[in-house]
Amino acid sequence: MTDAAEDPTFAIPARPERRFSSTTVEHDGGVVFVLAPAVERDESSLDALLRDVLDGGPYRYGDWFDLPLPLYLVHDDGTRDTFRVVVRDGTVELHVLPETGSAGLRALYDRLVAATACEWTVDCRADA
User: Fold this and answer.
1) Which pLDDT score, from 0 to 100, does residue 52 have?
2) pTM of this prediction?
C-alpha cells in the first residue's frame, strides 16, 4: 500500500495473460491498483467525478456492460494505454490489461488527485 505522503509509481509487478477461445477472451492473473480518496464518497459521486475526469480528456471510454456497478474500458490517447476502471466500495480500481503501461495509470491518478481537494491512497493487488 502507498500512503498519501508517498508518490505511487504504478509499477506493474506482473502482467495478466490473455487466452482466446472461439467465443471468449479470458485473462489469467491480474493486477489492480485500488485508489481510495481520503474523503469518503458514495459510488454515484465517485462515478460522477471519474466521468468528469474522463470527459476532460485525453480519454476515450465506454460502459458497455450491464453490471450493477460502473465498469469502463478506458483508452488514454496521450499515453496510448488501455485499461479497465471500476468504481466499487468507495474506491476507483484500475485493472491492468496485458499491454497496459504505468504511464496511463499514473496520468488518470494524477487527474483524479487534481480534481479533488483530498489526498488519495494507492494499493496494488496482484493475482498469480
Assistant:
1) 96
2) 0.86
